[in-house]
Amino acid sequence: MNQIRLGYLYGFGAYLLWGFFPLYFKLLRPTGPVEILAHRVVWSLVFVALLLAAMRNIGFLRALLRRPRALAGMVAAAALIAVNWGTYIYGVNSDRVVETALGYFINPLVVVLLGVTVLRERLRPTQWAALGVGALAVAVLAVDYGRPPYLALTLALSFAGYGLVKKRLGLPAAEGLFVESAVLALPALAYLGWLAWRSESTFGHVSAGHTALLVLAGAATAIPLLLFAGAANRLPLSGLGMLQYLAPILQLGCGVLIFHEPMPPARLAGFALVWVALIVFTVDALRQARRSRTAAAQARRAEVLTPAR
Hints:
- The protein is mostly helical and 309 residues long.
- The protein has one domain.
- It contains 14 helices and no strands.
- It has helices spanning 3-19, 21-26, 33-54, 60-65, 68-93, 97-117, 125-145, 150-169, 173-197, 208-215, 217-232, 237-243, 246-258, 265-305.
- The longest helix has 41 residues, at 265-305.
- The protein is globular, with a radius of gyration of 21 Å.
């Protein structure tokens, strides 16, 4: 199997698992969102620590400890991913799966916006058009909901910010998740201990299956991230960008078709505008990637044809 095909299989697996996360988190009821988040952090740390030990790859910690700026970046990444995970769990278990799907639909547009505001990137006219349509979609959805879709916006902003920090740090998926989980583990353990002291913990008090699902939250968190890292290392950015829409499509399907959340005409119109913005954004990205490949090929041909002096 060639590397490109393997990359698509990894990417498809990652986004398929992320797409069906609402089904998993619904099974964790009656556990509250913060307790689920705490278990997700603790068991992610355990799972990734075992994985890194099996790979004999613990030495990266010594190098990281000598980079205080990188450590500060990992603390920021941990805070952002905690906000993202907690918001998502809350959205799913408060019957707002459709709004969580919206957050991941608009995430690519927020990434572009961060590029302008933080990295001072210059946008092409088509990208500005996509952002304008996306802003109109948020306005339409705000009218429909009677409020801004703050849950979706929080998910999009936290995940886009997390991606920006991770891109600057450049840590591999397993090592990055280990450090992020380690940063969050102490408050997570303190919260779980407080719940146990107050006899309010659900861990071990609902059923054996429920307890197993809480423990497996670590593997459920780490495996898609590792698959995504495998895809990112093998696929061109355009191919990976096309796959990213699979997860929110599946999440939207879960919300509407399985959990029967409402989708009135105004909300559907808002989502339609988001999809238009994404189509414009994706077509522009594919055209730019094609132009870049063509320019690179022409440069290589010119280099070959230029006689040596």
